[in-house]
């Protein structure tokens, strides 16, 4: 059985990976032990791949001999020139957008995105989720993989599942947002699910 340690404390991402692993024979996904006590590497690369590689290499040094997987992912909105991109997790904070009494980071990011798109018509709100995974062992990158899913940004949030920008990310082929689909469907369609399947396929071929 292959064990992959995931270098993230994001509960939503861990859940996505756990669902993905359920569909793969011989693969076990575990959170990286002691992650909270490991100094976080800088995420200042200009690309998702650069950040994913930096995190995977850094965290794998704390689990010698094991495979550690790190991801960097986010939202790209065409009419905003690709924003928020690599700044997706801190979009509102980086912009100094701090609405009163809103302490939830995901909600702040969503409100900031809606404000940025306030005057953008429906047919100009195309976007994509992009994910890059990097697998490393003992500080050396073994493999990387990529995944994406295309969609649109709504004018108001819909759905209670998911995390991040999921309540605003609309999938036209399903007529639902990422926050309205079940976890199995999300894994089948999502950027993270696509990247994970691609990573496992590359590992089998290596």
What this model shows, in words?
This protein is α/β, with parallel strands linked by helices. It has a single domain, classed as Maf protein, CATH 3.90.950. The protein contains six helices and seven strands; from the N terminus they run βαβαβααββββαα. A seven-stranded mixed sheet has the order 2-1-3-4-5-6-7. A hairpin with a 4-residue loop joins strand 6 and strand 7. The longest helix is centred in the C-terminal third of the chain and has 15 residues. The relative contact order is 0.16.
The neighbouring-strand order within the major sheet is: 2-1-3-4-5-6-7
- What is the count of β-strands? 7
Please state the overall shape, judged from the principal axes of the Cα atoms: globular
What is the SS-derived class?
alpha/beta
Largest sheet: 7 strands, mixed
Q: Kindly state the percentage of residues in helix.
A: 25-40%
CATH topology (fold) name: Maf protein
Q: Based on the coordinates given, report the CATH architecture.
A: Alpha-Beta Complex
Number of domains: 1
Helix-strand pattern, N to C? EHEHEHHEEEEHH
Any idea of the CATH class? Alpha Beta
Question: Overall mean pLDDT score?
Answer: 93
Determine Rg (CA atoms, Å).
17 Å
Helical segment tally?
6
């Amino acid at each position: 059985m292959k064990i992959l340690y995931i270098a993230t404390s994001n509960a939503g991402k861990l859940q996505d990976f756990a669902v993905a692993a359920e569909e793969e024979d011989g693969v076990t996904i575990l959170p990286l032990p002691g992650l909270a006590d490991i100094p976080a590497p800088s995420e200042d690369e200009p690309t998702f791949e650069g950040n994913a590689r930096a995190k995977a290499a850094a965290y794998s040094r704390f689990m010698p001999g094991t495979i550690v997987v790190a991801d960097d992912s986010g939202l790209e909105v065409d009419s905003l020139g690709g924003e928020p991109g690599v700044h997706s997790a801190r979009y509102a904070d980086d912009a100094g957008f701090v609405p009163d009494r809103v302490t939830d980071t995901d909600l702040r990011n969503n409100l900031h995105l809606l404000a940025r798109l306030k005057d953008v018509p429906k047919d100009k709100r195309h976007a994509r989720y992009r994910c890059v995974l990097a697998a490393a062992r003992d500080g050396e990158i073994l493999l990387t993989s990529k995944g994406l899913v295309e969609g649109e940004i709504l004018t108001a949030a819909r759905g209670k599942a998911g995390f991040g920008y999921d309540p605003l990310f609309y999938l036209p082929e399903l007529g639902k947002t990422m926050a309205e689909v079940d976890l199995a469907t999300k894994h089948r369609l999502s950027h993270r699910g696509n990247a994970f399947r691609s990573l496992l396929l590359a590992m089998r071929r290596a």
